[in-house]
Write a structure and sequence with these properties.
The protein is mainly β and 93 residues long. The protein has one domain. Helix content is 10%, strand content 30%. The protein contains 1 helix and 7 strands, in the order E-E-E-E-E-E-H-E. The strands form 2 sheets. It has a 4-stranded antiparallel sheet with strand order 6-1-2-7, with no helix packed on it. The model is unreliable at 82-93 (pLDDT under 50). The chain binds zinc ion.
Length: 93
């Protein structure tokens, strides 16, 4: 599925919100994202934010469970290398 994400221009992390109440930041805490798939809310200096779309072979339910169970395998991608995930591609628009 395609996911709307944002990239931090300072640290290079790509972050996305996995569920409505999944609010988290990038590594350097310059930008934040929230809202899951219902609405996308971002915070931080607009100059640090770059919107992108990523393609993940995963369902909304799996992402929700990842957040809900505190596994935190997804939601933060470092230097466009997916953390804790394999065999998928990251596409920046
Ligand atoms: Zn950052």
């Amino acid at each position: 599925m395609e996911i709307s994400a944002i990239k931090c221009k300072k640290c290079g992390d790509i972050i996305f919100s996995r569920a409505r109440h999944d609010f988290h930041s990038c590594s350097c805490e310059s930008i934040y994202i929230d809202g899951g798939f219902d609405y996308c809310r971002m915070a931080g200096a607009p100059t640090n934010i770059e919107s992108c779309k990523i393609q993940l072979d995963i369902t909304k339910e799996e992402l929700f469970d990842d957040w809900n169970n505190g596994n935190d395998k997804y939601g933060l991608i470092k230097d466009t290398v997916l953390v804790g995930w394999k065999g998928t591609n990251v596409f920046e628009s």
